[in-house]
Amino acid sequence: MIGEKIKRLRMEQGLSISELANEAGVAKSYLSSIERSIQKNPSIQFIEKISSVLGVSADDLIRETRGSKMDEQLDEEWMMIVQDAIKYGMTKEQFREFVDFHKWRTQQKD
């Protein structure tokens, strides 16, 4: 998703992949692999360099498009719940187990 966003912003600004890579000081081949979703987890340094040239914040580049269904679902209350879970030591695996249990319990009621 981040690669698609970078490509869209680059094209909206009329930049070639070579121009963006040169201006950001990153390897053209690496930028290309990000845009094509071959590489999916670019470093924060890469994101900061690219976002600077594209004139957007690193946060805007990383986040889903505003107004998406996920943004509507992950409101402030949900974020606080997740932060509390992390704060009190809940792991991703434990959270996944809870979600799976809830799905199973819901299916049993049907």
TrEMBL record:
* Coiled coil regions in record: none
Please provide the record's keywords in A-Z order. Answer: DNA-binding
Q: Which residues does the UniProt record annotate as the domain Sin?
A: 65-103
Q: Where are the transmembrane segments?
A: none
Please indicate if the UniProt record lists Nucleotidyltransferase as a keyword. no
Positions of the HTH cro/C1-type domain: 6-61
Concerning SMART domains, the annotation shows: HTH_XRE
Q: Which Pfam families match?
A: HTH_3, SinI
Q: Which PROSITE patterns match?
A: HTH_CROC1 (PS50943), SIN (PS51500)
The protein, known as? Helix-turn-helix domain-containing protein
Q: Which organism is it from?
A: Lentibacillus juripiscarius
